[in-house]
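lol forgot to send this yesterday, sorry. struct tokens for the thing we talked abt
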């Protein structure tokens, strides 16, 4: 695994693969203009497209010399400059956004433990995280949050709502919540330190998984704890005849996690290759030892991106797993995290990556071996045809493997 670590100083966060830059000293002297200039230099030297979206990059160098007066001016100017690259993955993060990103990487935050979103102008609970204050208080998916600490959520953004709901451990937040046609109810919930779990071995209750098969749901690669959690899940399922790895709607995370996990499942095979702006190709291979040789079925969908595609692509190209579901997102670009003075940062696209077969999946995605739909009607009726297909295929593979093992034993006895 040490060789893997040396090669894998690449990171992924929410639809992006990232290297950690060596320019990480946040205590350097800073002026708003020098911050902007630093951002310009980083793009000039690192952006994967040497034409910088077919423009003269020097035109941005002194464009705001007489305009930038403070940090906020610099932030706006950098965002304007970066937007000209027409690359959604190259972006500037102000100190607040970068701090929140780091909290996600560390795998913990302080709050009540619910995922939220805005749909049709309504602030909704997407899902409570298992064993958190939000779940214990009784919050459920699709609950509408009408008020936060007495203030209406009408027109609120997800970021603003998250900022109001989060807070120091031990403090309380009051939510007015409406569930379906029931009367609105007030919840007073005490905030705690929330450990963000990336792995679950609990399958949906409405799908029957045979006891001889294991199920591992990997929801993201963001937390540094994801690798250890996955390894523990493998240990817990070591006596199973086969494993289902569910990567649906997994948007990515730390690429080191994807490489470590692939290394647990592959034997001396290529995991991924990266190609930089100069055309240099670097290939990462698995070590010789695997943690399991159990048959594998991986489930993906259109929300499976980035590190999820690294893992599923490695397992598919090496014929280590059968892929079920829908075509993945198609995120095949690598970003570098560059910390800037003052606590801000930039993500810069510096490479593209290739699957072991040399396939560039950017904007194309990974096609499953068995394409299976999951419709809104399926969800309403609590059906999961993708998981059901995975169970069907894995059951057959487990039986076939047992038969082959038995044949090998008979051959040895005959000899």
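and heres what i got for the seq, position by position
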């Amino acid at each position: 695994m040490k060789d893997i670590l040396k090669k894998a100083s690449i990171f992924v966060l929410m639809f992006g693969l990232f290297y950690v830059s060596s320019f990480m000293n946040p205590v350097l002297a800073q002026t708003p203009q020098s911050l902007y200039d630093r951002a310009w230099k980083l793009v000039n030297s690192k952006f994967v497209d040497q034409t910088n979206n077919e423009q003269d990059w020097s035109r941005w160098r002194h464009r705001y010399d007489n305009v930038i007066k403070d940090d906020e001016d610099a932030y706006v100017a950098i965002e304007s400059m970066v937007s000209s690259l027409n690359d959604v993955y190259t972006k500037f993060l102000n100190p607040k956004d970068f701090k929140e990103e780091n909290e996600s990487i560390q795998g913990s935050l302080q709050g009540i433990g619910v995922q939220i979103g805005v749909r049709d102008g309504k602030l909704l609970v997407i899902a409570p995280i298992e064993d958190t204050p939000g779940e214990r208080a009784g919050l459920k998916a699709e609950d509408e949050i009408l008020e936060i600490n007495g203030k209406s959520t009408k027109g609120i953004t997800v970021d603003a709502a998250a900022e109001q709901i989060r807070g120091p451990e031990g403090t309380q937040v009051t939510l007015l919540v409406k569930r379906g046609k029931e009367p609105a109810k007030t919840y007073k919930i005490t905030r705690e330190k929330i450990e963000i779990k990336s792995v679950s071995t609990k399958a949906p209750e409405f799908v029957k998984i045979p006891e001889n098969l294991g199920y591992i749901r990997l929801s993201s690669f963001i937390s540094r704890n994801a690798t250890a959690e996955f390894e523990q899940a493998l240990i817990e399922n070591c006596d199973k005849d086969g494993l289902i790895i569910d990567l649906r709607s997994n948007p990515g995370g730390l690429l080191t996690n994807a490489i470590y996990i692939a290394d647990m499942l592959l034997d001396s095979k290529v995991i991924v290759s990266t190609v930089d702006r100069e055309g240099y190709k670097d290939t990462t291979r698995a070590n010789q030892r695997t943690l399991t040789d159990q048959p594998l079925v991986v489930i993906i969908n259109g929300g499976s991106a980035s590190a999820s595609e690294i893992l599923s692509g490695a397992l598919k190209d090496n014929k280590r797993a059968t892929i079920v579901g829908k075509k993945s997102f198609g995120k095949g670009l690598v970003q570098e995290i560059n910390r800037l003075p003052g606590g801000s940062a930039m993500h810069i696209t510096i490479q593209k990556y290739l699957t072991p077969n040399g396939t560039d999946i950017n904007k194309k995605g990974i096609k499953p071996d068995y394409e299976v739909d999951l419709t809104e009607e399926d969800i309403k009726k609590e059906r999961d045809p993708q998981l059901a297909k995975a169970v069907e295929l894995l059951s057959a593979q487990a039986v076939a493997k047992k038969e082959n093992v038995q044949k090998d034993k008979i051959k040895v006895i005959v000899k």
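The chain has eleven helices and 21 strands. anyway ping me if u want another try
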